[in-house]
Structures are given as C-alpha cells and as structure tokens.
C-alpha cells in the first residue's frame, strides 16, 4: 500500500493541552499564548510558527468536515513538534482491521476522546492520504504490546502487515508510548520520506523528530527494487 504511515505517542490529555485548548486561543485571537506554550516546551521558533500555522488551519475547519481528515490529522502533526514519532511504509492498524476486525478492541473511537464541542463526523481509520487513522488509548497500548510479546497469533497477524522488519518499528512506537503512559495515534503523510534522495524528505511536523528506523527500511526496500529492475533489464 502506498501510504506513508506514522505513529504518534500522545495522550488524550495532551491532545487537549497541545491542540484543543490552543485551537481555542487561535479562534479567540490569542496566538501569543500558542507561541508561549511552544517556548515552554522548548520548541524552536521555526517549528513554533509551523505549530501556529497548523492551528490556524484547524481553526478554519468546518463542522461537517471529516475529523480524520482535519483535526485528527492536525493532532498527529502537532504531536511531532513536542516529541518523536515513528514511521512505516504502507503498514497500519487501519489495514489490519480490514482483514481482522477483531483487532478493533484495541482501538478507541474519536467520540470517546474529543471534546463534545467538535461535532465533526469520523471514520476512525485511514480512508485516504493526509488522514488520521486509529487511536490506541494508553491502556490499549499496554495491552497490545503485552499480547504482541506473549501471543504468537497476535505477533503473526501483525507481522503480516508490518513485514520486512517493520514490526520492530511498531514495537518501538508502542514501547515508547507505554513508557510515557500515553496512547498512540496513527496517521498518513504527516511525513513523506524520499527513499532516493533522503534530504528531500518532507514533513508537516518536525522532520527531525521522525524516528529513522522505518525510513531506513523503506530506503533499503526501494534500493533492492531498483537493483532487481536493473538486473532484469540486463538479462
């Protein structure tokens, strides 16, 4: 699947502190509060402006816009200004539940997380590019991580989606979230690595907070594909 999927450790309380409350500040014309919050958290000026710009876009969201394509995506973006996030190419929980709906028990719907002031409808999974996916609550992160380590069936199911070494990246993301006692939010195209020219990779968030392991796996895969194509053309 051609999605650039990222995983963002964040709690519902942090969503409120970093997104919903600052969003209200922007709507009330108190943008200086956003910059003060960014400074308190050690966010550099360049990224503080990107943070503010993201909130400005969020403030213009219409109530009938899909939450996943708007606020959900922006929450994933702003998380990356505050801490690290993780990347895998084409592998996500949204694709897992299409094959195995029973895994929905590990996910929490937006309506259980979002303040009631946000009436936007939600699909609660990746539906297209530039979109939030599922959210695992802090407890669900711990539960899935434990089952992943102890239940061979869970490991097998996840490895079918996160193949070619990617499962280690997912474990890293889950472990990071568990150690922080936060949840994990999935999204697409927050970061778009360029496997041929890594320096041309882009991110709506802080590119330098993107964990490199999944990016390197993507680069290796593309490199092998190019080598195979060259070899076949020479046969």
Quick description:
By secondary structure, the protein is an alpha+beta fold.
Explain this structure to me?
- Helix content is 51%, strand content 11%.
- With 235 residues, the chain is α+β, with helices and mostly antiparallel strands.
- The longest helix is centred in the last third of the chain and has 22 residues, at 213-234.
- Helix 6 packs across helix 7 (152-161).
- The mean pLDDT is 95.
- The protein has one domain (4-234).
- A four-stranded antiparallel sheet has the order 2-1-4-3, with helices on both faces. A two-stranded antiparallel sheet has the order 5-6.
- It has helices at 12-27, 31-40, 45-59, 71-82, 93-99, 138-150, 152-161, 166-180, 213-234; strands at residues 4-10, 86-89, 131-136, 183-188, 191-192, 202-203.
- The protein contains nine helices and six strands; from the N terminus they run E-H-H-H-H-E-H-E-H-H-H-E-E-E-H.
SSE ordering = EHHHHEHEHHHEEEH
Overall pLDDT confidence: 95
Structural class: alpha+beta
Number of helices: 9
Distance between the termini: 29 Å
Give the helix level as a range of percent: 40-55%
Reading side by side through the largest sheet, how are the strands ordered? 2-1-4-3
Radius of gyration: 18 Å
The strand count comes to: 6
Low-confidence stretches: none
> What portion of residues belong to β-strands?
5-15%
Largest sheet at a glance? 4 strands, antiparallel
Give the number of domains. 1
The general outline is globular
């Amino acid at each position: 699947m051609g999605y650039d999927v990222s995983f963002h450790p964040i709690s519902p309380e942090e969503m409120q502190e970093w997104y919903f409350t600052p969003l209200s500040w922007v709507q009330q014309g108190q943008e200086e509060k956003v910059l003060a919050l960014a400074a308190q958290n050690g966010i550099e000026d360049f990224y503080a402006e990107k943070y503010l710009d993201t909130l400005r876009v969020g403030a213009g969201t219409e109530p009938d816009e899909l939450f996943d394509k708007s606020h959900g995506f922006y929450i994933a973006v702003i998380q990356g200004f505050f801490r690290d996030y993780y990347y895998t190419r084409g592998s996500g929980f949204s694709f897992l539940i299409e094959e195995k709906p029973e895994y929905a028990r590990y996910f929490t719907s937006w309506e259980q997380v979002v303040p009631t002031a946000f009436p936007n409808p939600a699909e609660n999974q990746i539906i297209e590019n530039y979109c939030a996916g599922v959210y695992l609550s802090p407890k669900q992160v711990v539960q899935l991580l434990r089952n992943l380590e102890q239940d061979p069936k869970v490991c097998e199911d996840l490895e079918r989606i996160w193949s070619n070494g990617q499962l280690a990246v997912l474990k890293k993301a889950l472990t990071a979230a568990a150690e922080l006692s936060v949840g994990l939010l999935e999204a697409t195209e927050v970061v778009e690595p360029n496997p041929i020219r890594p320096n041309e990779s882009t991110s709506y968030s802080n590119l330098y907070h993107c964990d490199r392991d999944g990016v390197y796996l993507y680069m290796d895969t593309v490199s092998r594909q190019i080598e195979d194509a060259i070899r076949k053309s020479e046969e």
